[in-house]
Write a structure and sequence with these properties.
Layout (H helix, E strand, L loop, with lengths): L13 H11 L8 H14 L3 E5 L2 H11 L7 E4 L6 H8 L3 E4 L11 H6 L5 E7 L8 H10 L3 E5 L7 E4 L2 E4 L8 E5 L12 E5 L2 H11 L3 E2 L31 E2 L10 H32 L5 E2 L17 E5 L1 H4 L3 H10 L15 H7 L7 H9 E4 L7 H15 L1
Parallel strand pairs: 2-3, 2-4, 4-5, 5-8
Antiparallel strand pairs: 1-9, 6-7, 8-9, 10-11, 12-13, 13-14
Helix pairs in contact: 1-8, 2-8, 3-4, 3-7
The chain binds pyridoxal-5'-phosphate (PLP).
The site of pyridoxal-5'-phosphate has 14 residues, from helix 3 and helix 4.
């Protein structure tokens, strides 16, 4: 057993290591067959028509903004209860990141608050599935689309998850209420590629744009734009030298990036995907046992569920409880230190994004903007949750929580 049980940790098997080593012995470390194979498996898993694998979820969110032509003069609303990337992606393209408050039960973007805080320049909504619990996507999409905005689901926490709407089951990555969806494969998330992410969409135009911008905006096919599609092309007025077409031919059609993921990472991802069902089962089981164990603690509230959130479909990334530190008579720092002494690592996720210094300085956001997210934050504590956590460790955590909180 480790000296301290962390709040989250990757699970790497000998098969994972073998899969990575096999790529290291092969011809392609990047731009090879494992990338396409990984994308194909993600499409199988979710049913999404397109999957564009990239070097991080942050890159995927940036590409989603660019694909939807979000830019200067536009506003993007997201949840304050998220990792900063969900909002930063709007700033990358010159748009204004903004925040609407969370629902106090699910800790996800509240559709009513989204509607209330709507402004005419909002062009996109980034809905974050906090802890893996799906947002109320149908309600969020209804608000956003009625007002002409695209819906991007930041499902970095919700790989392999799903939800129920009006009796029907939907998979995250392929449902009618998100135009684009993002997963993260950072080691702390549900499954990992070391660093990595994927953008999924059923929209052909968004997919084509994101794919192109992933690799410097370069296309291989000659375009009409340069007048080079004829069998006997005339010299382009823009660039006569480009009229000679050979195997080396490529055009830069847009200013893109190097957001490519490697074959090494995708081999790890493919191997991890095989174990994803086990990961999800174990995570659900740990959450079930935690909920049961903590039901008798008066200062602690376990995660609540909304109508769309079905226990059997949630892909749990985090187990975050609410603790009434005032009633308990201990500060959060004291509770974390006492738990640490009993070998239990914890984390606080998240400081409301709108209260970060850069957001305050750049956009004038201040405390009181999102009261539910701020209240949630003051009581939030994430306990250890990862698939390799065994029964002994689980009992150690529940005992430690009881010792410290009662
Ligand atoms: C982790 C995370 C990201 C960023 O993921 P990276 O792959 O590390 O770039 C974005 N959004 C949320 C909600 C996350 O938790």
């Amino acid at each position: 057993m480790t000296s301290c049980i962390p709040y989250g940790r990757q699970s790497i098997s000998e098969e994972d290591i073998e899969a990575v080593c096999a790529v290291l012995r092969s011809d392609f470390l990047t731009c090879g067959p494992k990338v396409e194979e990984f994308e194909a498996r993600i499409m199988e898993l979710t049913g999404a028509r397109h999957a564009i694998a990239v070097n991080s979820a942050t890159s995927a969110l940036h590409l989603a903004m660019l694909a939807a032509s979000i830019g200067r003069g536009d506003r993007v609303i997201t949840s304050p209860n998220t990792f900063l990337a969900s909002a930063n992606c709007a700033a990358y393209v010159g748009a204004t990141p903004d925040f609407a408050d969370i629902d106090p039960v699910s800790y996800n973007l509240d559709p009513a608050a989204l509607q209330q805080g709507w402004k005419p320049d909002v062009k996109a909504v980034v809905a974050v599935d906090y802890a893996g619990q799906p947002c109320d996507m149908p309600a969020i999409a209804a608000v956003a689309r009625e007002r002409g905005a695209v819906v991007i689901e930041d499902a970095s926490h919700a790989v392999g998850g799903g939800f129920i709407h009006e009796g029907e089951t939907w998979k995250i990555g392929n449902h009618p209420w998100a135009d684009m969806t993002v997963f993260s494969f950072h080691p702390v998330k549900t499954m990992t590629t070391g660093e990595g992410g994927v953008l999924m969409t059923n929209n052909d135009a968004f997919a084509a744009k994101a794919r192109q911008l992933r690799s410097h905006g370069i296309v291989r096919e000659p375009s009409h734009f340069l007048g080079l599609v004829d069998a006997n092309p005339q010299p382009s007025t823009l660039n006569p030298q480009l009229s000679e077409r050979g195997p080396w031919y490529h055009e830069m059609q847009d200013l893109g990036y190097n957001y490519r993921i490697t074959d090494i990472q995708c081999a790890l991802g493919l191997s991890q995907l095989k174990r994803l069902p086990q990961f999800l089962t174990r995570r659900r089981e740990i959450v079930r046992q935690y909920n049961e164990a903590f039901s008798g603690l008066s200062w602690l509230r376990t995660p609540g569920l909304k109508e769309v959130q079905n226990r059997d479909l949630i892909s749990w990334h985090l187990y975050t409880v609410q603790i009434d530190f005032k009633a308990l008579g201990k500060t959060r720092t004291e509770v974390m230190a006492e738990l640490k002494q009993q070998q239990v690592g914890t984390q606080v996720l998240y400081i409301p994004a709108h209260l970060q210094p850069w957001y305050r300085k750049s956009f004038g956001y201040a405390p009181g903007k999102c009261p539910a997210a701020e209240a949630y934050y003051s009581q939030a504590l994430s306990l250890p949750l990862y698939p390799a956590m065994n029964q002994i460790e689980l009992e150690l955590v529940t005992k430690a929580v009881y010792n410290v909180l009662s």
